[in-house]
Amino acid sequence: MIRQTVFGFKIEKTEESLTAHGGLALLAEYNHGMGLRDLADRYLPGSGSNRGYAASAFVDSLVLLLQAGGRRLEDLRELRRESPLLKLVGRDEIPDSDTVGDWLRRMGDPKTGQAGLGAVRDILTHRLLRRDERKDYTLDMDAMQVEGEKQDAKFTYQGLKGYMPMLGYLFESGICLLDEFREGNESPGAGHVAFYRQCKERMPKEKRIARFRADSASYQAEVINELEEDHVLWTITADQDVAIQKLIKDIPERPYSGCDYELAETVHSMGKTKTSFRLVVKREERRQKSLFEQEKYFHYAVATNLPEEKSAFDVLTWHNQRGQAENFNKELKIGFGQDQMPCGQIHANAVYFRIGAIAYNLFVGFRRLACPAAWGRHTIATFRWKLIQIAGRIVRHAGQVVLKLAAETDLLTLAHGIRRRCYEENLATS
């Protein structure tokens, strides 16, 4: 017999109960221990039919899909192939992609589906924050551009069709406290005071937002006044309007030694701000000359109320840490499949995006509360590579179900430790 393959092995079908995502059972156990299914059924409307799926079937399936690495609704077919594993974690059936799409459109009503998912997100956030001894947090506000040639998508200020969700992250934990799905053509500076107030309202009673950072879209008198009234320390990238440009020209040169740029500082106030504030200006010589740009220097200004004990360099360094919000955005957008929306209607996509935020938050909690500290900086992609995508065999014997993982002893020990901590989290939630 002449071999017609490069290597000499054969491929045959097996009827054994196997899984390619054995570690997904650990995430599913954590999600359930935190109360995801119960909350979804409590706050989202049911099917209205005895034959229909419960709300938790949709939410739980989509969360597991996004945590496992699914990119679109059609990837539910791949998850359905993991039926032995899903039965192991109490998910006997998964809706198909068409059914899920119809459900997303039904849940698109802001007063039912979106509000219900908001309640699920907020309760889960509270449960995660209660397990954190920290009392004061830093809120980083940032927008995320989601491109999409969808039916009702609008052009963003960058000239691309899509959406522009606004997100509020707690810097110290990485939790997405609030997500607001917006039209692509909505002004980047719209609704910042209302968004900040909603973030503040979502903090547990014993915890508070003590610090705030944002880009120039938040450089508004109303935002600054609100933060001052709440005694919040803040830094905001200053919009270089005519007044700021004049201030920059009038600042005497005071180079900061040891850096390849110069720092200077002055005091400024806007027409409607109730107090004045510090303005830290960074000046850097342009390294590449422009044919049309005659300015020798590039300027970057940061407005702040940080105390004078913090030097201009300290202010700039702390403000630049808000770049971590870009990493949070990247993890949510790329890691959890929010770079493309599944539906042609914005309200349906808002539901899908909020489920993505819930999946992200649950992973953040799983990484921090159920995993060793050494895993604390791993992204979801690393978790998939090291933990989730482990081959396993599901065996039923003498009334017991056993998940046999193709893993080394240290990884099995890790899995047992994770399960124990998931159980403890479940007890704390009950």
Please give a structural write-up.
With 430 residues, the chain is of the alpha+beta class. Among the domains are: 18-109 and 341-429, no CATH class; 233-309, no CATH class. The protein is built from 15 helices and 14 strands. The chain has an eight-stranded mixed beta sheet, with helices on both faces. Strands 1-13-14 form a three-stranded antiparallel beta sheet. It has a three-stranded antiparallel beta sheet with strand order 3-5-4, with no helix packed on it. The chain is elongated.
Terminal residue distance? 64 Å
Can you give the mean pLDDT? Answer: 91
Kindly report the spatial arrangement of strands forming the biggest sheet.
Answer: 7-6-2-8-9-12-11-10
* Helical residues, percent: 40-55%
Radius of gyration: 25 Å
Which secondary-structure class do the elements indicate?
A: alpha+beta
> H/E element string?
EHHHHHHHEEEEEEHEHEHEEEHHHHEEH
DSSP summary, beta strand count: 14
**Overall body shape:** elongated
Low-pLDDT residue spans:
none
How many H/I helices?
A: 15
Largest sheet: 8 strands, mixed
Q: How large is the share of residues in beta strands?
A: 15-25%
Q: Can you give keywords for this protein?
A:
430 residues, alpha+beta, eight-stranded mixed β-sheet, 42% helix
Q: Which secondary structure elements does this structure contain, and how are they paired or packed?
A:
Elements: E1 18-19, H1 24-33, H2 36-43, H3 55-68, H4 76-80, H5 83-88, H6 97-106, H7 110-130, E2 136-143, E3 146-147, E4 154-155, E5 161-163, E6 166-170, E7 176-180, H8 192-201, E8 208-214, H9 221-229, E9 233-237, H10 242-250, E10 262-268, E11 277-285, E12 297-304, H11 312-320, H12 323-335, H13 346-370, H14 380-388, E13 392-397, E14 400-405, H15 409-429
Parallel strand pairs: 2-8, 8-9
Antiparallel strand pairs: 1-13, 2-6, 3-5, 4-5, 6-7, 9-12, 10-11, 11-12, 13-14
